[in-house]
Amino acid sequence: QVQLVESGGGLVQAGGSLRLSCAASGRIVSIETMGWYRQAPGNQRELVATSSRRDITNYADSVKGRFTISRAHAKNTVYLQINSLKPEDTAVYYCNADIYDLGLKNYWGQGTQVTVSS
To answer: What is the SS3 assignment for 112?
Structure first.
């Protein structure tokens, strides 16, 4: 059984920073893409950033220049450094990963709340 566990969310003032972490555990052969998505109340879940097995990154236009995704491959962990936070960044942030155990499967974490006050 593979699990993704996020941490690092919280309440922060506009302009502040947070670092989210997501660790994958369980029967893992290898991890392909890992990424972050977010969902604000009343909105659909949207892509924030992804990082491939070779550390090729992709960002939503709304977060370019403020968010940085990185991976610690030996720890099966992905990070999201969030700077210059804005109230519109308030959302539940979800970790997502494509993981080989017996086959390639897609997994979601439980989510971590990020709230930005103005």
So the answer is: strand
